[in-house]
Amino acid sequence: MPSEPTKQSALQSLRNWGENSVPPTLLATLITAQHARPFQPLPMLFPPILLFSSYLNLSDYKTDAAGITAAWSGLYALLAIRRSQRIKNKFTARGAVRGASIALCVVNIAGCGLAYTFGKREKEEKKV
């Protein structure tokens, strides 16, 4: 009898998203695209931290990386939502990138927060 592939629940899919190293890298790319030209120093503090989070994830610190990504994605979402934008500017390329980055922040907060909350620290548990 061939085994059928099991379907993942929405929560498991979100947790897998949070344990992946691509979302913080993608968010860092979108932030850089928006704020590098003209250079805005405050938003440009976020990409190095998000890239460091991606590095931690690749170094098998998935739970800690998920926590950093969730926290800094939330901070950037708050910063981005505070800026007002006219209705006609929302339908430009820059507006689309801004909308995509805010949407990615929301998904990162949900997925990475879930991965951080229910994650296990295998390296620390093995030392004990």
From TrEMBL:
Source species, domain of life: Eukaryota
Keywords (A to Z) from UniProt: Membrane, Transmembrane, Transmembrane helix
Membrane-spanning intervals of the chain: 65-81, 102-119
Transmembrane found in the keyword field: yes
Protein name: Altered inheritance of mitochondria protein 19
Organism: Ampelomyces quisqualis (Powdery mildew agent)
